[in-house]
Automatic annotation (TrEMBL):
Coiled-coil region list: 39-94
Bias type Basic and acidic residues, positions: 260-276
Gene3D superfamilies (UniProt xref): L1 transposable element, RRM domain
InterPro entries noted in UniProt: Transposase_22
Record keyword Cytoplasm present: no
Descriptive protein name: L1 transposable element RRM domain-containing protein
Keyword Coiled coil: yes
Keywords for the protein's UniProt record, in alphabetical order: Coiled coil
Length: 293
């Protein structure tokens, strides 16, 4: 083979190799372009996702702030509602300040009228409490009439025309001992529920020799003071002085029992205290009747 033939063969092989190499390079370039395109799409998608995440974080912060503001507003509203309920209960109790609730008063089995109830209450006030000149505005039974046929007569709500007569009846309530008749303040259901939850605590305090009594719905517990050193009248800022309601501590043999009528509360032995005042606290009165020894 001569030299020219070898040269032609080499040139042919070079062209073939170059064509094959260019084809491979072009394929790799195409793949690289595809990868670059995908990377660009992924980068854009990632940037979009990051922007969305940032927006979500910002929205979350805004929502958390709004949630806190709403929570504060709800708490304020709840506090306001509780305050209004307390004020309503207080006002309802104040409208009943001339009322007393009498339990254990015998009831006619059929058809007792308000007039008959008022007559029976007047007899109790006159015969048992020695209050002949009491003016009653009204007196009526509470509860379903069917209860009259049972062994437990319905309670009687009595409204006195004068607050002083109501206080006199409370003051003389100890004279009802042994009659099965009990006198309590006439409070709204919410106040009665609050007091009822504290009866056991009051009983325990009295069993421990302490002085325990209610000022409206708040239970007051005090250490007992020697009778000889406690003859002075409490000052106006004393815990015995109420605001808007009379608080009576039955000492000696008191006949006052819990409003639910389930248990008779034991009493003290240092004398009787009774306090009263108007709702604004403008006037407060402290009366103390010492038990004769």
């Amino acid at each position: 083979m001569d030299l020219d033939a070898v040269k032609v063969l080499l040139e042919s092989q070079e062209r073939t190799f170059r064509s094959a190499l260019e084809l491979v390079v072009e394929q790799w370039k195409e793949r690289i372009r595809l990868v670059e395109g995908k990377m660009t799409d992924l980068t854009k998608s990632l940037e979009f996702s990051q922007a969305e995440i940032l927006d979500l974080k910002n929205n979350e912060k805004v929502l958390q702030k709004l949630n806190k503001e709403k929570q504060v507003a709800v708490e304020e509203l709840q506090s306001r509602v509780a305050e209004l309920n307390h004020q309503l209960n207080y006002q309802e109790d104040y409208t009943r300040r001339n009322n007393l609730r009498i339990s254990g008063l015998k009831e006619q089995p059929i058809g007792e009228t308000w007039e008959q109830t008022a007559v029976n209450v007047s007899k109790i006030l006159e015969d048992k409490l020695q209050l002949p000149s009491v003016n009653l505005e009204r007196a009526h039974r509470v509860g379903p009439a069917a209860a009259a046929a049972s062994s437990h007569p319905r309670a009687v709500v009595v409204r006195f025309r004068n607050f002083s007569d109501r206080e006199a009846a409370i003051r003389n309530a100890s004279k009802l001992k042994g009659t099965g008749i009990y006198i309590n303040e006439d409070l709204c259901p919410a106040s009665l529920k609050i007091k009822k939850k504290q009866f056991l605590l009051m009983k325990k305090a009295r069993e421990d020799g302490k002085i325990a009594f209610f000022r409206h719905t708040r239970l007051i517990i005090r250490e007992r003071i020697d009778q000889r050193s406690s003859s002075s009248v409490p000052a106006a800022d004393s815990p015995h002085v109420g605001a808007g309601f009379s608080g009576w501590v039955g000492h000696g043999d008191s006949t006052v029992r819990p409003p639910d009528g389930t248990e008779r509360v034991s009493s003290e032995t240092t004398g009787d205290r009774r306090v009263s005042g108007d709702s604004t606290g403008c006037q407060q009165r402290v009366l103390r009747d010492r038990k004769k020894t």
